[in-house]
Design a protein that fits this description.
10 strands; elongated; alpha+beta; two-stranded antiparallel ribbon; 6-stranded antiparallel sheet; 3 helices; 127 residues
């Protein structure tokens, strides 16, 4: 049986916010981290329902992990999706294309205003 596992424990790596004139990095401690609507359980469910095990990987019994990083923007939208690592390129295409289509999040907040947060998400493909 094929499964896709997500490991969210160490997903929140950095916090940054932008003004019209400059980009600043804030402390890693924030008032409110961004949250997928419905929480971590809903995020895991969304990933399981929207990221498929690539057919060629299934045929050749390929397993592996993909690490993808993306921004949760001030309005809760997902942007700047970047592949950090992938055990096999066949997984990378599937993960990046789906994360780019992820629904809006509840944005992070720092000092009473919404901020952009960089989020790192590892996803494992295993049988």
């Amino acid at each position: 049986m094929k499964k896709i596992f997500t490991f969210i424990a160490v997903c929140l790596m950095s916090l940054q916010f932008a003004t019209a004139q400059e980009v600043c990095f804030a402390e890693t401690i924030q008032e409110q981290m961004p949250e997928f609507v419905g929480g971590e359980e809903a995020l895991t469910e969304w990933i399981e329902n929207n990221i498929s095990y690539p057919m060629m990987a299934e045929v050749y019994s390929i397993e592996g992990k993909v690490v993808v990083a993306f921004d949760i923007n001030e309005d809760g939208s997902v942007g700047n999706v970047q592949l950090e690592s992938a055990a096999d390129p066949i997984f990378a295409d599937e993960v990046v294309s789906r994360i780019e289509k992820m629904p809006q999040w509840i944005p992070g907040m720092q000092n009473g205003r919404y901020v952009k947060v960089r989020y790192t998400l590892p996803i494992s493909f295993v049988f």
